[in-house]
Write a structure and sequence with these properties.
By secondary structure, the protein is α/β, with parallel strands linked by helices. About 25% of the residues lie in helices and about 30% in strands. It is built from 7 helices and 15 strands.
Length: about 300
């Protein structure tokens, strides 16, 4: 049964090319969050490694691992030890030549509650994800844990209101967005501000439009491109937790390690939906054109 009051946490971290160091930082901060009473802990997108998608290199497929596999087993043991839910983001090797950007959810007893495979795959300068990741094939279905039903969406998914809505309609209690997003260092400050503002606004909008809390966990820090050490991505951090009216409950700066926690009152979502009944007033009889790529 879903609890009404729930303490959650997310870990904003800088991430290096040293997998062992990255895992050690995750484990250390998870323990701190659990000591502070957090029951659900969210990690950033692809937290085990530097963001390898800046270039196309077949050697990077060696970074992938199965689920269950070495990393999920580490987090599984930790979840069982601490009696918490851990939401971790892994480069999944499903089969030879078939790889996904995948979240694994480990329940309080260490069992694998479920996985979500990233559905929207970007392909932009510095973000060559279509080279690495097969689009998800599991749809938009919340992962049921002993604590809450988790609507997991990954990074580029966060820009699509349809994804947040479908997770909500399927019974998600909250939306969780592990993320790896940042600036091109050549962008001027005005452009950086516009991008960051849009990123936060769209996700707080999902909270409002669905009457549901949102957790967004980004990495931070500059990661140089393997092709040119003078270029790369300046990941902008700015992780946050928002309530069902889009209100900010906790937020981090763009350039700091941060452990964010917040108390969520899941019953408040129902109260919000009673006064803002978006789900009641949806015109499902008039939305057929949403299935079109574009209405010519």
């Amino acid at each position: 049964m879903t609890a009404h009051s729930l303490k959650v946490a997310l870990l904003q971290q800088s991430i290096s090319a040293n997998k062992a160091d990255n895992l050690a930082k995750c484990i250390s901060q998870i323990r701190v969050a659990a000591c502070q009473g957090a029951k659900i802990i969210l990690l950033p997108e692809l937290h085990n490694t530097a963001y390898f998608c800046q270039t196309e290199n077949t050697d990077n497929f060696d970074l992938a691992e199965p689920i269950p596999g070495p990393s999920s087993e580490i987090f599984s043991a930790l979840a069982a030890e601490l009696n918490i839910v851990i939401v971790c983001s892994l480069f999944e090797r499903r089969s030879a030549g078939l790889y996904h950007n995948t979240v694994a959810v480990l329940d309080t007893d260490g069992s694998l509650a479920g996985i979500y495979r990233k559905m929207h795959i970007p392909d932009d300068p510095g973000y060559h994800e279509k080279f690495y990741f097969t689009p998800g094939d599991l749809g938009f279905h919340p992962i049921k844990t002993t604590i809450a039903n988790l609507g997991i969406l990954i990074c580029w998914d966060q820009w699509f209101p349809e994804a947040a809505r479908l997770m909500t309609l399927a019974g998600a209690d909250l939306l969780l967005f592990p993320t790896a997003i940042g600036w091109d260092p050549l962008d001027d400050n005005d452009e950086k501000h516009r991008q960051l503002d849009a990123w936060e606004t769209i996700q707080r909008g999902h909270a409002i439009a669905n009457g549901i809390p949102v957790m967004s966990c980004n990495r931070f820090g500059f990661e140089a491109s393997p092709a040119d050490k003078n270029t790369g991505i300046d990941f902008w951090g700015s992780s946050f937790i928002a309530g069902p009216q889009g209100e900010l409950l906790a937020s981090a700066a763009s350039n700091e390690t941060a452990l964010l926690t917040a108390e969520l009152d899941l019953k408040h979502s129902e109260q919000v939906r009673r006064i803002w009944p978006y789900l009641r007033d949806r015109r499902i009889d008039a939305y057929q054109d949403l299935l079109l790529r574009f209405r010519d």
